[in-house]
Amino acid sequence: MAVTPPDKRIWWNEPIERVELVWIVIAFLWGLFMFFFMIAWHFIGQQNLSSEAYRIAPSAFEEKVDAFAKKHQVREEKGIPVAKPPAGSDVYILGRLWQWWPILELEKGQSYRIHLSSIDWQHGFSLQPTNINIQVHPGYEHVISLTPTQSGEFGIICNEFCGIGHHTMIGKIYVTEPKKAEAGQRLADGGKQ
Amino acid sequence: MTAETVIGAVGAKAEFRTCQYTGLKVDAAAQKLIIANAVAAVVFLLLGGVMGLLVALTRWPAVHLLPADWFYLVLTGHGANVLLFWIIFFEMAILYFASAVLLNSRLAAPKLAWLGFLLMIAGAVMGNVAVLQGESSVMFTSYPPMMARPHFYLSIILFAVGALIGCGIFFATLVIAKEERTYEGSIPLVTFGALTAAIIAVFTIASGAVILIPTMLWSMGLISDIDPLLYKVVWWGMGHSSQQINVSAHVSIWYLTAALLIGAKPLSEKVSRTAFLMYILFLQLASAHHLLAEPGLDASWKIVNTSYMMYLAVMGSMVHGLTVPGAIEAAQRRNGFNRGMFEWLRKAPWGHPAFSAMFLSLVFFGFIGGISGVVLGTEQLNVLMHNTIYVPGHFHGTVVAGTTLAFMGATYLVLPLIFQREILWPKLAKMQPYLFGIGAAGISLFMMGAGTLGVARRHWDITFSDANLSFAHSAGAFLMMGLNGIFAIIAAVGGAIYVVVVVGTVLFGEKIKGGHKLTFPLHAGGGAVASHYGSEKTPKLPGTIILVTIFFVCFVLYYFINWKYLSELWLFR
Ligand code: HEM
Ligand SMILES: [Cu+2]
Ligand SMILES: [Cu+2]
Question: Which ipTM was obtained for this model?
C-alpha cells in the first residue's frame, strides 16, 4: 500500500506491469515525436521566433526609432506618426509607458525586419486578432522578419503588466493589399509615370 | 552523529497516541504542527480566494467590479496568497504528516519547526501588508525594472526561509525514523513522493534566494541595476520548480487517498517511484518554457530545455496518470466490483469528499492542466498564447483544479485523523469538491478560450476605453470572459463551503473518541500497517486502459490543432 513500506526492500527489483510498460513506451515515443516536431518546424514551418537580438541602451534605441519615424512618416493619427517603410527594410517599434510607437503601414506579402524594444519597463507585444505574442525587454533589441499574410487594421495590445496604464497601451499596424498600395503610390506621385 | 546534532537542536521527549483507524503512531508534536500549518493554509486560502473572486468579477466585462489600481493590487495579493501561502503552508503539513506520522516516528526538533512556522507567518503577513499598502502591485512574479517596496521582497524571503526549515525538519525526521527503526524496509510511496517534493523545494528556495535577495537590495537602492532577462531565467528556476513541488505533493495525496479509502496498492512500486524521480531529474531546466517568447535566447537551448527535460518529466506525470487510476481499479476489483469495464469506477466512494476531490483532481489536472501545459511549453506554439489569459487558464487547471482540489480532499482525511474531529455538515462537505471542481475547471477552460482569442492576462479593461487608439476584441472573447466570471462564482461558492466546513469542524465538530464510527469511513483496514503490502500482482485493468486511451487521443488532437492555428499566423523568422 502507498502508505506502507513496499513489500520488498529493494523496490527497484520489483516487476513492471505489462500495461505500465506499454504506456511508458507510448509516453516516451510521444515525447520523442514532440521533440523532433519542434526541430522539424524550423525547416517546414513559417513561424519560428527569431533569436537575433542585440543589447542596446534605451536612449540609443529611442533615437533610431525617432529617425525611422521621421524618415518614413506618411501621415499622423491622434498625434502619432504613421510610418510606411519600403518592403524588406528595417522597421522599428518601441514600447513605452503606455504606447507602441509609431503606427506602421505595411504591405501584405512583403517581409520586414521588425526591431522591437522597450525604453522603460517590460511590455508584451501582442498583435491582434492574429495573436502573435512576443515579450519586449528594455535593453534588448529583438529583430524579427515579419511577413503579413492578411490585410486590414491590426491592433498591438500590451500583455505584460506594465503599471497602471497597462490596459491603455495600444498600437496599430495597417496592412494594405499589394495592388491598392501600388495604385496609392502612383496617386501620391501625382500620376507621373 | 544523530540527526538532531546535525541540525543543532535537541527534541523534547516525544509523546505518542495510536490512531484507532490506521494503527499509526502519531507524535503529539507533529500533530500540533500539522494542525497549525493546515489552519494557516486555510486562512490564506480564504483571503486569496476572496481576492480571486474580485479579480474574476473585474475581468467580467459586464460587471467590471474594481477600479484599475485596486484590480492590480488585488491580483498581486491573489497570486501571493493562494500560490505561495495557501499551497506551501499545506505542503508543510503534508511533509510533517508523510514523515513523522506515516513512519510512526517522532518529529525532529519540533521547536525549530515552530520557528520555521513563525517565519512563514511573519512573511505571509508582511507580504499582505506590503501589497495592501499599494506600492507593491508588481504581481507575484515582480519582474524588474518594475519595482516593489523592499519589504515586499523581504516578506517572500522570510517565508521561504521558514519553508526551508520545514524541509530540513522533514529530512531530519526521515533520518531519525531510520535510526530508530520505526519502520521496516524502504519508506512508503507517499513519503517517497513527499521526499521528491522536499528535494525540489530546496533547489527552488535556493534559486529564489539567488534572485530575490539582489532584487531587494536593488529596491533599497544598494544595487543599481537588475538585468530583466537574467532575472527571469533565475526567477523561473524558482517559479517553475515550485510548481513541480506542487505536483509531487498532490500526486502523493492521490496515492494516499487511494490507499486509505480503497485500499489501493501501487501497480508496481518501481514504476511509481521512478516516475517521481523523473520530476527531480528533469524539471529544473524546464524553466526555459517560461522564456520562449523572450529576445535573444537560442532556439536549440529552448528545444533541449523544454523537450528533453520537460517531456521526461511529463512522462512522469503520464505514468502517474495511469498508475493512480490503475491502482484504484485493481483494488476495487479486489473489493468485489468486478463487473464490466467500469463497475469499479461507478461504485467508487463518490459520496466521500476525499475521494471525489482526489479523482476530479486527477482528471482535471491531466486533461486541462497537463495537456495545455505541454502545448504552451512547445517552442513555437508558445507564441500563440504567451502572456494571454490562456496562461492563467492553464495553471488554474494545474494548481487549482489539480493541487488545490487534491489538498481540499486531503483535508477531509486530516480533520478526523489528525484534528480528531468529526466533520460537521457532511452534506455540504459531500457536494463541496464537485462545486469547487466544476468552478475551477470552468475558469480554466474559459480563460484558455479567451486567451486563444487574444485576451491579455493581468489586464483591467479589454474594451480599452481609456486608450488613445482603439482596438475591439471579438464578441467571443467577451463571452468567454463572462462565462469565466460565472464559473468563478461557482468556484468561490465551493471554496467558501470548504472554509465553512473546515472552520466549523475545527471549532464545533464532535471530538472523536475510541470506538467512534466515522461519517466518511476509511477502507476496512485502509491505513492499517498490514503485513501484506507492496505492489499489486498482475491486475487486469480494462477500464483504466480506456481512460488513458481517451486521454492520449485528446492530447494528440489538441496538440495538432494548435499547430494548425500556428500555421495560419503571419510568417515570422
Ligand atoms: C475562487 C477561486 C479562484 C478564482 C475565481 C480565480 C480567478 C483568477 C483570475 C480571474 C485570475 C486573473 C487572470 C488575469 O487577469 O491575469 C487569476 C490569477 C491567478 N490565480 Fe486564481 N482564481 C482562483 C483560485 C486560485 C487558486 C486556488 C490559486 C492557486 C493555488 C490561484 C492562482 C492564481 C495565480 C498564481 C494567478 C496569477 C496572478 C498573476 O497573474 O500575477 N487562483 N485567478
Ligand atoms: Cu506595456
Ligand atoms: Cu502592459
Answer: 0.90
